[in-house]
Specification:
With about 210 residues, the protein is α/β, with parallel strands linked by helices. It is built from four helices and twelve strands. Strands 4-3-2-1-5-8-10-11-12 form a nine-stranded mixed sheet, with helices on both faces. Strands 7-6-9 form a three-stranded mixed sheet, with no helix packed on it. Strand 6 and strand 7 form a beta hairpin.
Amino acid sequence: MAWNRNQMAARAAQELRDGMYVNLGIGIPTLVSNYIPEGMTVTLQSENGMLGMGPFPLAGHEDADLINAGKQTITELPHSAYFDSAQSFAMIRGGKIAMAILGAMEVSETGDLANWMIPGKLVKGMGGAMDLVAGVGRVVVVMDHMSKHGESKVLKACTLPLTGKGVVDRIITNLGVLDVVPGGLKIVECAEEVNEAELRAATEATIVD
């Protein structure tokens, strides 16, 4: 059985290490904050100007002034800090953020990432993704393996406009985990009740042994 959104986020949380500064993209990655291992200190950075994001608020306790880059309400922590976008992007571009966990529309076997627009559809803008993939130490993508039309989103080459070339290190989907390695993708693990043959069949990209 494929992982659901929460299980994917929990698996992505296993990528975190104590002391890390991490940026979470919109969509499934925002759920990773709910699965930070107990006793681990991870500081979440949001490109709209916040360092030290807390978990999502309980119903009825939302503060409309406290939002992440995806416009979702969040909470603050005793050590939270606020600053303008220029300083936020200086952190990202200056290599101060250890890892970004991002959503994607497509990823290629060489680690190319497409996650900001579909031609012909209205978009608000590219957000911080292009700076993130260029400035952080490690990029992990969390997404569904197949589109709603049943087509693979893990491709030999992306068909959508790119966010970055050769920037993705690890791909976590509802079917399993793959690493970008020389020659293609390497299977790290399969989701529960998903076997390697099923994962290969759902992947257009080259899988190397």
